[in-house]
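Model the whole thing, not chain by chain.
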Amino acid sequence: MRPFPSDRNYQDWLADTRSCFDPDTLLHAAEVEQHKVSGSDSPHGRPGAASRVFKLTTTGRQIWAVKCYTTADPDRADRYRHITEELARRPANWTVDCAYHARGIKGWDGNWWPVLLMPWVGGVPLLTWLGSNADNSLAVERCRRDFAVTIHNMHKRQIAHGDLQPGNVIVEAGDRLRLIDYDGMYVPGLDHLPLRQSGMPGFQHPGWAAAGKLCAFMDRFPGRLIHLSLLAIAREPIVWQELHVDGSDSLLLEADDLKKPETSERIKRLRRVADPDVQEELAQLCADLREPDDFHSIPVLSKRFRKPPADAGLPPILPEVSPVAPEVAAPITVTIPAPAPAPVTGRVPASWVYRSTTPERKETVVRTWQLETQSPFRRRLRVIALTSALIVGLLVCLLITIIYVA
Ligand SMILES: Nc1ncnc2c1ncn2[C@@H]1O[C@H](COP(=O)(O)OP(=O)(O)O)[C@@H](O)[C@H]1O
Ligand SMILES: [Mg+2]
């Protein structure tokens, strides 16, 4: 197998989006967010363990997150086929549509590489948001409750994110949460795949890296940990100032606190928060940490956390679906022929990323994409249906000929 492109390769290729994207895609000729490298502009790729994410604005002024991978994962296409089908079938407030495209970006040598596309979620990562809102109890309470509702929605649907940590939680207007980064996600039907990433250590049970597996209960521990942190901040905001370490990816507890809860000063401090909910959740977290690898028995978050406390003055839970439409960038002054906006409203049609140069060309491209992303079962069904239609057609022709001759 060819080695995957490096960060540098993607930066070079994305400097010319007319060459690296198919002319029939929305990304062709899109603007890439830039940053300064040694004094000159260069495409800004947000770093990750196995990818770079670039922010692109199309000629129609829609903003997309384009994830370019730097390492191979033989299951990626299969995984995303299941994930996109599941999320498109039942979008929820926490979901963002996504599309994996095996022939996404073209290198200078003419080879194509996969990309994952998502509408860009306007908002700020949870950690950054807490940096400026931790003392606003009502806002943190809203956020906490949205998180609890999200955890329940995923639990009900047997979905697990697989890398629940604040960098993958975006806070939108109204203190609503969206989850991004579905590379480690479990959805029903993925039991045959191995666990390819074990999440951020500061948010995982210390035994998870060695004994975890891809399954519906992957989020139990990180879900409870993040919820406990939001709960403690909402009920006693000063804990953020006292326990959060500047520059750390963790919220209130660091990886070491999870490894040695008995001697942890931070856990000791949390025991002094005068709130029965915090104490109950903290006791459960400590009990979970005493079990070395019995992840099944970590209970799902209590349903009562979906409700706001009676005196919080929060509105009732919003309806479950509010899809992300790609953010629209501020208009620019030069006139650009604007293609029709991509119809990203909940369900993702196969053609969402394509615009047509000619109707025939568009159909070919969309058909190729559909074949790439359809499940083998559906593909087989399609072949059977087409073959049957052909046979029936031939029989009808034969019958007409016989009747005509007779
Ligand atoms: N759809 C999106 N909307 C807004 N920002 C995004 C989106 N996808 C990724 N990002 C940004 O890019 C960063 C890295 O993306 P992510 O998918 O989390 O990659 P990794 O798997 O490397 O962690 C995120 O932390 C976020 O800042
Ligand atoms: Mg991430």
